[in-house]
Structure formats: structure tokens, C-alpha cells
Amino acid sequence: MKQWNAERDAALDAARKAAGLKVNQAKAELEAEAAQARLAIQASAGDLARQVVRAVLPVAAGSSC
Fold first, then answer.
1. What distance in Å separates the CA atoms of residue 28 and residue 45, rounded to the nearest whole number?
2. Helices (DSSP H) in the chain: which residue ranges?
3. CA-based radius of gyration for the chain
4. Whole-structure pTM over 0.85, yes or no?
5. How far is CA 64 from CA 7, 35, 52, 57, 58, in A?
6. HSE-up of 25 (CA within 13 Å, CB side)?
7. Fewer beta carbons under 10 A from the terminal one: N or C of the chain?
8. Is 9 exposed, middle or buried (0-12, 13-18, 19+ CB in 10 A)?
């Protein structure tokens, strides 16, 4: 019975470690994807700002203020 418990505990420990590695890998992948997304957003921010200015300026230029 003690041997069975020791084998079970060893198997559980190995499974926990494997699961922990998978979680850490998934976290690293998510962080890398988030970093890429941040870079893409930052890269497009200037273009989006120019589009907003182009869309707003004709209205502002024609206003009676």
C-alpha cells in the first residue's frame, strides 16, 4: 500500500509539474501576442489620428464659429 501511495504521489507530482509548464508556456505565448497587438495598435495610431483629422477638419473649416 505504501508503494502504491508513493507511486501515485510521484505521478501526481509529475502531472502538476507538467501542467505548470504548460500554463507558463501559455502565459508566455499570450504575453507575446499581447505585445505584438500593442505594437500594431501603436503603429496604426498615427494613421488613425490623420484619418480623424481629415474627417473633422472639413466640418470645422465650414463652420460659422
1. 26
2. 2-61
3. 28
4. no
5. 83, 45, 20, 13, 12
6. 6
7. C
8. exposed
* Spatial CA neighbour of 36 closest among 48, 28, 46: 28
Cα 43 to Cα 30: distance, rounded to the nearest angstrom? 20
Distance CA 11, CA 18 (A): 10
pLDDT along the chain (65 residues), means of 10: 94 98 98 97 92 82 59
Cell for 58? 472639413
Report CA 31 to chain centroid distance, whole Å: 5
Cell of 16: 502538476
Cell of 27: 502565459
* Residue type (1 letter), 7: E
- Segments making up each domain of the chain, as ranges: 1-65
